[in-house]
Amino acid sequence: MHMKDRFIAWLRDAHAMEEQALTMLTAQAKRIQSYPELKARIERHVLETQEHLRLLQELLDTLPSGGISLVRDLTGRLAATAQGLGGVLTSDEVVRGAMAGYAFEHMEIAAYRVLIAAADELGEVEAKAVFERILQEEIAMADWLEGNLDDTTRLYLLRDERDLQAKR
Ligand SMILES: [Fe+2]
After folding, report:
1. 167 within domain boundaries
2. Ligand 1 centroid vs 20 CA: distance in angstroms?
């Protein structure tokens, strides 16, 4: 039973992590003005993240001791809000946000790789398929952000140099 309990705990952690992602991404998308491509990609990932939450919730609902961890979800949302506020107070928030997003996507990738291995070990075929599907979208977002970091940084520097609105 240990293995299954650990699996459920990781699944709850993933749910809290997606809640945190949703809070962060929604706040970022709302604030960005001068970087339309970045804004559009984040808005797309907000929709994907809502779907990830729904899929994880469905998995949790089928488990005997499932149910989300409200405390962890709340902690995650508070952490995300704090992170968001921290970024807002800086004059380079778009670059900091892009860096934070890139790092966060890789944390998600690691979490889903762990869940895939655990689901495989437990023979949780359906759950494994869900994690693999989500993982692909996290990798796609991480790749996009990686490709975009250079552009966002240069555009930020150019706009800032010309006293155009650069920070967001
Ligand atoms: Fe993500």
Report:
1. no
2. 10
Give one DSSP letter per residue of 57-117, joined into a string.
Answer: HHHHHHSTT----HHHHHHHHHHHHHHHHHHHTSTTHHHHHHHHHHHHHHHHHHHHHHHHH
User: Could you report the per-residue pLDDT of 23-57, keeping only the tens digit for each?
Assistant: 999 999 999 999 999 999 999 999 999 999 999 99
Report CA(163)–ligand 1 centroid distance (Å). 33
Distances in whole angstroms, Cα of residue 12 to Cα of each of 69, 137, 153 = 6, 19, 35
CATH of the domain at 114: 1.20.1260.10
Q: How far is the CA of 160 from the centre of ligand 1 (A)?
A: 29
How many structural domains does the chain have?
A: 1
Q: 122: domain range?
A: 2-161
pLDDT tens digits, one per residue of 118-159: 999 999 999 999 999 999 999 999 999 999 999 999 999 999
Q: Note whether residue 44 is domain-resident.
A: yes
